[in-house]
């Protein structure tokens, strides 16, 4: 019988990856950078520090390939995707997801979401139920 490998304790417990990829101006897919992701990354990093959140590393990321839905944040190790637009969105993710361990449903992206209209349709359906 083989013994399961031992994993070391995680150095950082939470890793938000904020896409800061910039595409050429006029790209049909757009980019997270042109939607303000660099500012939102800086804000998230500073706010996490201000809140005294431990064991977190707020990272910049290259393209996460969901440009149309950005700015995007991927929270690891959970693998939860968020689409953020404002500092208030960042505040809500830090409080509800990182500090409280919950989810911010209104900002979450599903694997099937490809375009903003996909997200809008899914959210409208959920609201009607």
For the structure shown, list the relevant keywords:
Glutaredoxin; five-stranded mixed β-sheet; 31% helix; alpha+beta; 3 helices; globular; 15% strand; 129 residues
The structural class is alpha+beta
What's the domain count? 1
Largest sheet: 5 strands, mixed
Q: Work out the helix count.
A: 3
β-strand number = 5
Q: What order do the helices and strands follow?
A: EHEEEHEH
Q: Write out the CATH superfamily name.
A: Glutaredoxin
Give a brief description:
This protein has helices at residues 37-50, 87-99, 116-128; strands at 15-19, 59-61, 72-76, 80-83, 108-109. With 129 residues, the chain is an alpha+beta fold.
What does this entry look like structurally?
The structure is a single chain. Helix content is 31%, strand content 15%. It has 129 residues and is of the alpha+beta class. It has one domain (15-128): Glutaredoxin (3-Layer(aba) Sandwich), CATH 3.40.30. The chain is globular, with a radius of gyration of 16 Å. The termini are far apart.
Describe the secondary structure blueprint for this structure.
Blueprint: E1 15-19, H1 37-50, E2 59-61, E3 72-76, E4 80-83, H2 87-99, E5 108-109, H3 116-128
